[in-house]
Amino acid sequence: MSACLPIILGVFTLIYTIQQNQIAKDNRLQDERQANEIRQQNIYDKYLEDITKYKSDGNINLEIIRLKTLNAFSQLDIQRKRSIILFLYDIGFIHRNTTEKERLRLDGADLTGVKFIRSSTFHCQLDNIYLSGILASNIIFSHCRMWYANFDQALLINAQFINCSMSYSSFVSADISQAKFIGEANNAERIDFSNSKLIEMYMSLPMRNANLTNTDTFNSQIIFSYNASRVNYFLNTRLPNGTFSIIGTSQLIQDGSAETEYQKYWLQRSGYNAVEQSNESEQIPDAIDGKSYFKLFFNSRAFQDINVRHCSLFIDSDNAWFNLSAYLACPFSQHRKDITNIYLRFYDENLIGIKTEILESNYNQTSFKYQYLTERILPHTRQISVFIGTIMNNSTLFTNINNNSNYTKPYCLIDDMKFNIFKNIL
Ligand SMILES: [Ca+2]
């Protein structure tokens, strides 16, 4: 017994020391937590105080407010971030139905994991909330009313919208992959999902009247309503099984037939001569389509840019081809090698040229001839510039000028130009 006592005392001392160390450690952590809490509360209070003062003074510089807000978000916890969003909403800074000048943009604001959950004290009425460009993976909205909400360009991976009423909301160019739309009626009416990613998204009710232009729904669990009054709009859409919906094949060149005032859509290239439009009184030959056509002289050049972002998904799938067609002629030239051409330049997202294609008239083409060109569109193409012009033998021009004849300047003709994108089924 007497031999045991020191051992017991020793064990006791050891346990006591471990306990004391743990208590000291707990206290230290508690102190750190408190300090952090106080620091966050100070940042939060100062932020609210500043913005309220700007607002009451009428001294609203949205760029400064934006920087202050992003700075606050980078330091605060999710509860305080949520409070700031509700504060900004309440004072009208993040409403979709204001003008762009009056609206605070929160692009890049980190709202990851923030929760907006309706409760007895919080009604979550967020109609028209404007949260374009936020970074908000795992964000949760539960039992909220958010008609006309705007989440354009936002990153919302694995977001949850539980029993939310959100008709007419907008997710243009947003990433809502793996998100969940769970719950009751009105959950998903007339939402604009164009250009957005809905990969592996889940929606418990059928999707209705949504805009799915260029939307990626690959591997999603979405049921599309085929009720006649509730059909969704599919164009260049990647469907859940990986296939594509109808691909837009409509004419992408604006006024390719010289029928409107052509300067409306065509720009003159600097350093080149103008392209002209024929008028009926002087017109020989007749136009192929409508009443007039383009007249292109020596060194004439005009262009227009076609934006193909609305079918970027399809283009990047590497199945996209284009067809360019037009009627071309050079009846009023004096050199058999004078030609007219349509020159296509393909650009990527950064406007770096990645491909060039040319459709040309033949030599000695004195009357209109239908010509076309069909080629693959390279993935990553985002813009296509269409140039119309001529390659004329210089001597033709000089000959005419020197002869001082009554022969008007030689020119070539283009009419009924069409550019379509289509799916190559081979
Ligand atoms: Ca025409």
TrEMBL record:
Q: Which UniProt keywords apply?
A: Signal
Record has Signal as a keyword: yes
> Which InterPro entries did the record assign?
5peptide_repeat
The signal peptide stretch is 1-20
Q: What is this protein called?
A: Pentapeptide repeat-containing protein
- UniProt organism field: Adineta steineri
